[in-house]
Amino acid sequence: xxxxxxxxxxxxxxxxTLPLLPLNTxxxxxxMVVTLALETPEAGQAADGALAGDxxxxxxxxxxxxYTRVGTVARVENEGELPGGQxxxxxxxxxxxxxxxxxxxxxPGLWVEADPVAEPSTTTGRAKEMVREYRAVVxxxxxxxxxxxxxxxxxxxxxPGALADTAGWAPDLSVEHKVELLEELDPEARxxxxxxxxxxxxxELDVSEQIRNRVTEGMDKTQREFLLRQQMQAIRAxxxxxxxxxxxxxxxxxxxxxxxxxxxxxxxxxxxxxxxxRTSEQSPEHGWIRTWLDTVLEIPWGTRSDETLDVNDxxxxxxxxxxxLDDVKDRIVEYLAVRKLRADRGLxxxxxxxxxxxxxxxxxxxxxxxxxxLALVGPPGVGKTSLGGSVARALGREFVRVALxxxxxxxxxxxxxxxxxxxxxGRIVRALTDAGTxxxxxxxxxxxxLGNDWRGDPSSALLEVLDPxxxxxxxxxxxxxxxxxxxxxxxxxxxxxxTIPGPxxxxxEIIRLDGYTEDEKVGIARDHLLARQLERNGLTPDDVSVTxxxxxxxxxxxxxxxxxxxxxxxxGKLLRKTAARIAGGTAIPPVAIDVDDVQPALGRAKFHSETxxxxxxxxxxxxLAVTGAGGDVLFIEATTMDGxxxxxxxxxxxxxxxxxxxxxxxxxxxxxxxxxDPASTQRRVHLHVPAGGIPKDGPSAGITMTTALVxxxxxxxVKAGVGMTGEVTLQGRVLPIGGVKQKVxxxxxxxxxxxxxxxxxxxxxxxxxxxxxxxxxxxLVDDVRDVLAIALEEAPVAAAA
Length: 801
Fold this sequence. Notes:
By secondary structure, the chain is of the alpha/beta class. The chain has 6 domains: 16-117, Archaeosine Trna-guanine Transglycosylase, Chain: A, domain 4, CATH 2.30.130; 125-162 and 183-207; 244-298, no CATH class; 311-512, P-loop containing nucleotide triphosphate hydrolases (Rossmann fold), CATH 3.40.50; 518-602, Orthogonal Bundle (Helicase, Ruva Protein, domain 3); 611-791, Ribosomal Protein S5, domain 2, CATH 3.30.230. It has 27 helices and 25 strands.
């Protein structure tokens, strides 16, 4: 509330002594005439005091626990009783007065000093302008409310202060604002406040009117369209023509008649079409049904690609697209050969439909016999995903890729229920729609990276999809009709098998892609990668040629991987450097890139054989392992110090820790026969497996740990070119392990020439490319003593610790 007192031009008015009548619920401003019920004893006493004097009283509003500093001097015009018998006064506000101190008086009530405030006799130009604006705004409010008497009541009021006080009559003006009007002694400031409030009221009325008009227009438009639509339907009915809705329904029925469907599927679609025909367009269900019908009719029911069953042509296509991968190509050719024989003998070329009535089940059981779900498992960059496209091309089918990496929601595969907002079918159904046929090749990419949380288990949703005995009646949650997936050739890809649940893994036929040899990488770079990178870098084979020696230098010195992804990046970098030289005028096509041009373009070699350097001291052995990125070599280091016990570092898993304990126990138990001082085996042993930031686990490092311990305790170094893998027992037996091909290829990439394997892993060497077997030496052992005899140097080079 304002505490300033304005200057007035009127002569000073003497202070008055008046009875104070508190106002509990409202504010009375000058010039107001109100009927006031005397509800409290102090109000009654104040009325008695006024009637006993000159009939004047000071009306002061209550604010919280006190009173306002300004009140209204009012005259009692009349006294009487309300219909309920309560005593009341008719009061007329005269002027504002500043409330002073209380004074003693014999008359009833609380008497206080009141200093009347005189209104100024002059009006400024600003005040006159606000008076005109105030009248205009109030007139606008009156028009909005349809009550012209509001504006007429201001016709005879010209004084700014009195005009501002008329705002106190507004029913929607808060008590706080009315108190502000009362306490504002400056008429011009009072009018400015009142003008601000009426402007806000007019703005609110404008907004309300706009909203009301929009709602009314929308309702009118909807009603008008409804009436017009009804009239149009009636007119077309008279003319024998059908309306838009009838056209849509007729279109659905025509499309349905053309499809080859099972009886239960056709019945479900017909029921939805009938429901759509009966549902009003204003109903939300109308749009849901139409979306469902559009979705289910877009599925290529009965549409099939014509397969290419020529085995030789298929093999030629696979050989053209991919170098190596003979196991995968052989399996695809076998699959195609089986389908060809079944088709030639009439076992699988009839329509394959499933129906609850049994009308079309005769051929399904025959065709499902040839079902196969192939899973391509191998490290990144070996061509698993691109192989899916080649398989589809070899078979003459459409190809669709479904990325599963990071999918956590089961509904992503099986669809959402139709009751959900934004529901749609799952990825399997959408893949069929995208393919346009019921027998495409669908690649389920990165199946080992499916998630599993509170939203469901997507891998469980794949159990039905990937089971040839069940997927002929697959049900998507959105469609809720049987969908035949038995004609689909599913291919899955994964980097590792460990994260694939057992029931899902049981439905997959695993085909391993263990990586490429050095010669295969050179061939891939020459036949596939080079042409692609030339095109991406704006070059042609006539501009740049790369020799095989240069390609081999890139493979050996700048990449060390199971696949060829980094190889392609390095080739791109090599060609970009050449393209820059050609564009800059420093080289003139044709440019021949030879081995001497590789290092200036790609920098110094990123990889070199470090086996001799790492194993040059006792206590270090080279092991072979398999990771998610393919095969790799591990350097296991051992040392001893004063104390007791075994320390293991390098983020080893529980199985690998147990292997280390078994190796130490074997060495301690057989120290004398191994040429080890028994006393030295009782010291504290520390085994470390770099790199420490990479988790490692598995039993295949058993013989490597044993060799490292014996090397450290005897002072005999491990031969530089020897790598080994195998599980060891407490009796020193060497047990078989997995991933032989990947480990051997990793050994070759690391520059090793000798590999020690368990005796029972001998047949696995048939999977190793012949070119690798010819340049490497393999030793098959079944006892760890044979490992030590092959791996360790004959004479020690340092004394045992």
